[in-house]
């Protein structure tokens, strides 16, 4: 059984689109007819490869590097998306920063802060700056979480805490943004 989706006329903004599940997400949106914004932390060959694969489906594609630890980069990403496509229908928050460390390691707090900043705070900020655009199109936010949000693993406490917080953030945003016509899932 094959499942197909029709996202013709929709614009999907996918962060973290040069690694992991965000790659296949961006490509699937393109295959389903959406215009796709592929964004990764660096303008590298992986991001270009994803953008080109999306283009090969016939989709309109905006390829743009945006460091999710920098609010000005995220704002530029949203501004460029709006200037290019005039709308955002789907926001896929898929930041992924994962550095393992034991709580007893001297580098733990630095790795913890970086993990929280990239995985959680970037998602919160991207959501906050996209709400006005998503409300106009009665749209969707997809926050990528992980089984690690519910299941602990040694030396992954920062990542597990970030993913658990993403799950709660998603529930909070679903209740807050639902009345605005914005569906939020993780």
Automatic annotation (TrEMBL):
What Pfam families does this protein map onto? adh_short (PF00106)
Q: Which UniProt keywords apply?
A: Oxidoreductase
List, in alphabetical order, the Gene Ontology terms for molecular function in this entry: oxidoreductase activity
Please tell me whether the keyword Oxidoreductase is annotated for this protein.
yes
Q: Say which family it is in.
A: Belongs to the short-chain dehydrogenases/reductases (SDR) family.
Protein name as catalogued? Short-chain dehydrogenase
Source organism of the structure: Oppiella nova
């Amino acid at each position: 059984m094959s499942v197909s989706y029709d996202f013709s006329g929709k614009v999907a903004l996918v962060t973290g689109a040069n690694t992991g599940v965000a790659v296949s997400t961006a490509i699937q949106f393109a295959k389903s007819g959406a215009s796709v914004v592929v964004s990764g932390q660096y303008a590298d060959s992986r991001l270009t490869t994803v953008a080109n694969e999306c283009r090969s489906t016939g989709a309109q594609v905006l390829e743009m590097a945006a460091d999710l630890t920098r609010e000005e980069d995220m704002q530029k990403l949203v501004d460029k998306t709006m200037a290019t496509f005039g709308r955002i229908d789907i926001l896929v928050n898929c930041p992924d920063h994962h550095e393992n460390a034991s709580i007893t390691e001297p580098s733990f707090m630095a790795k913890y802060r970086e993990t929280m900043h990239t995985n959680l705070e970037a998602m919160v900020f991207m959501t906050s700056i996209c709400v006005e655009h998503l409300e106009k199109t009665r749209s969707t936010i997809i926050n990528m979480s992980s089984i690690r949000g519910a299941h602990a693993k040694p030396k992954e406490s920062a990542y597990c805490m970030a993913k658990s917080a993403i799950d709660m953030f998603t529930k909070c945003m679903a209740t807050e943004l639902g009345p605005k016509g914005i569906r939020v899932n993780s």
